[in-house]
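can u do me a favor
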């Protein structure tokens, strides 16, 4: 009995001692694995200086109730992120700097302290520290002690009676139990179980041992599951970071491509000394310097002192003002193309604290545009002078033609009075031809004078009630439309801002043409209307008259342009030219649509008034 008890006691003590040593080793390996996982998962956070991400990763250890605290330190030994158990039971408050003697692992005061380096490309970039208690080990040892005490007590009470008869029944389970315990200790396979025998003390011991293995297996499975989940989270986080880095690189490549291919010069200067830190291809072409020549230098290294001082003064103004500054014209001396004129916009770029960090500039070479504008000004001046000369010539010729025309009319009338009786029918017809030609010449001169005055007369802008103006024009046409059937369709017309006399002449000409060119119709149809558009109001006069060939629509508004013979329809060909000139002076435009023998429509537009 004493031998059995001693053997059982020694076996139990050896098992407990072995389990104590083994569990400590397993605990160190498990914590090392967790530290390595944390180290892998916080590499990106350390590289990108993201303590929040590191704290979130370390905080995942809260699923392990025996871990009291953990911390991440940078390569310089500075505290980067930490985790403390919320119950305040931690005995190791993470210092701001790495304390001495914390490398590797050690058991002290009922705790395991363990550290592992954080490596990136085989270079140490930080350290992981974990503090874990030994409550699980203590609980196991207490359980084992209770089991041993119980077994010894039961053994001592019953050994005397059953030792002889049950020697074999006791030895086999104990030997089997010892064998299984050894296998478990060596193989770390907690799925095996000892065979249960009778419901005696040995059987209870076996069941207790099996229960202990079940608990160990359950905890080991839970630990493995936690480890797998943590590894999965590390993989997912790593993929996410890789995607973010890839997206950022693609965005940078895209932005660089845009900057490089923009045809305007783009440059960036650092705010302190205004040295170039970025330059695009268009800037190299414009200035004649490579970006290697420009980067790290300022304006004094390339431009004449006066120009460089002006550029730097404007840069300081932009940085001080804090908003975009537009420089419409800025001369610059280039390396190969001489002096150029730039249109430049500059804006400051700030850091997170609102301090100016960089100055961004965008410059457009407007040298050719300025030269073209100067040429255009010269051409406009020449054109204005030519127009004035032409108008003066037209007015002079029209005015000077009146005197001989009056003489012709007077002598023709005298000829009719004194010689009409002596003239035959042919001679009288000749006199009528002269009279009609003289009248047409007078109308032509009058229209020329009106056309000439349209370019020189001053406009009197006011409110024009359009509907009443059109009614007046129609009333003035009554002598021409008597005994004719005309169907008038007049839509709603807005009041206008313009010269009333000039606009009246426009409507008189358009409506008069509609009346004239529907003369061949038994029932004339004339429509007058308007439509409002976004930037302008369009007006029209539409008829069902003889129309015109649409291929000649562009000639209708020219001087002396007629599409019908004078014998068919009277006129001088100046009326529509006057319409175009008047509408052009009002800021509008004119056009026409029509078909032969199917009517015509004449349009003009006026810009809408700006409210306020």
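np, heres the sequence
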């Amino acid at each position: 009995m004493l031998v059995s008890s001693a053997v059982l006691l020694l076996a139990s003590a050896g098992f407990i001692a072995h389990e104590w040593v083994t569990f400590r080793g397993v605990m160190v390996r498990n914590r090392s694995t967790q530290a390595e996982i944390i180290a892998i998962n916080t590499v990106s956070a350390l590289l990108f200086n993201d303590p929040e991400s590191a704290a979130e990763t370390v905080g995942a250890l809260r699923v392990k109730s025996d871990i009291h605290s953990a911390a991440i330190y940078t390569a310089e030994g500075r505290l980067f992120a930490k985790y403390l158990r919320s119950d305040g039971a931690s005995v190791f408050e993470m210092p701001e700097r790495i304390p001495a003697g914390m490398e590797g692992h050690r058991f002290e005061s009922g705790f395991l302290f363990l550290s592992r380096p954080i490596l990136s490309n085989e270079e140490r970039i930080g350290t992981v520290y974990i503090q874990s208690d030994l409550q699980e080990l203590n609980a196991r040892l207490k359980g084992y002690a209770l089991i041993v005490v119980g077994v010894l007590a039961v053994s001592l009470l019953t050994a005397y009676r059953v030792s002889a008869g049950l020697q074999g029944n006791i030895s086999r389970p104990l030997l089997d139990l010892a064998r299984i315990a050894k296998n478990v200790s060596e193989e770390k396979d907690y799925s095996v179980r000892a065979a249960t025998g009778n419901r005696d003390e040995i059987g209870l011991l076996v069941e207790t041992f099996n229960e202990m293995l079940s608990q160990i297996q359950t905890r080991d499975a839970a630990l493995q599951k936690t480890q797998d989940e943590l590894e999965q989270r590390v993989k997912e986080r790593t993929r996410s970071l890789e995607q973010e880095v890839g997206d950022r690189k693609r965005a940078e490549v895209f932005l660089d491509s845009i900057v490089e291919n923009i045809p305007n010069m783009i440059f960036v200067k650092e705010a302190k000394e205004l040295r170039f830190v970025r330059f695009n291809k268009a800037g190299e072409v414009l200035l004649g310097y490579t970006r290697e020549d420009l980067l790290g230098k300022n304006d004094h290294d390339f431009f004449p002192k006066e120009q460089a001082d002006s550029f730097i003064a404007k840069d300081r103004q932009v940085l001080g003002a804090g908003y975009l500054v537009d420089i419409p014209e800025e001369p610059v001396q280039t390396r190969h193309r001489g002096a150029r004129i730039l249109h430049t916009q500059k804006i400051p770029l700030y850091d997170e604290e609102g301090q100016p960090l960089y100055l961004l500039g965008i410059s457009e070479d407007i040298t050719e545009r300025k030269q073209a504008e100067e040429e255009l000004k010269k051409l406009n001046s020449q054109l204005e002078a030519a127009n004035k000369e032409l108008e003066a010539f037209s007015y002079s010729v029209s005015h000077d033609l009146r005197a001989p025309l009056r003489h012709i009319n007077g002598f023709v009338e005298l000829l009719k009075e004194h010689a009409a009786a002596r003239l035959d029918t042919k001679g009288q017809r000749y006199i009528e031809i002269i009279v009609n030609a003289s009248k047409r010449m007078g109308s032509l001169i009058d229209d020329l004078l009106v056309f000439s005055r349209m370019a020189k007369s001053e406009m009197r802008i006011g409110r024009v009630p359009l509907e009443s103006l059109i009614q007046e024009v129609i009333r003035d046409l009554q002598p021409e439309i008597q005994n004719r059937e005309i169907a008038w369709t007049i839509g709603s017309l807005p009041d206008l801002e313009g010269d009333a006399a000039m606009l009246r002449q426009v409507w008189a000409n358009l409506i008069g043409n509609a009346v004239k060119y529907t003369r061949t119709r038994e029932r004339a149809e004339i429509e007058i209307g308007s439509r409002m558009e976004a930037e302008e109001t369009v007006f029209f006069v539409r008829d069902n008259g003889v129309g015109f060939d649409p291929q000649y629509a562009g000639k209708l508004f020219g001087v002396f342009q007629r599409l019908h013979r004078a014998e068919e329809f009277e006129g001088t060909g100046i009326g529509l030219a006057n319409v175009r000139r008047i509408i052009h002076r009002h800021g509008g435009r004119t056009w026409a649509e029509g078909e032969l023998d199917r009517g015509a429509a004449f349009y003009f537009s006026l810009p809408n008034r700006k409210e306020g």
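Residues 201-261 form the longest helix (61 residues). hope that helps!!
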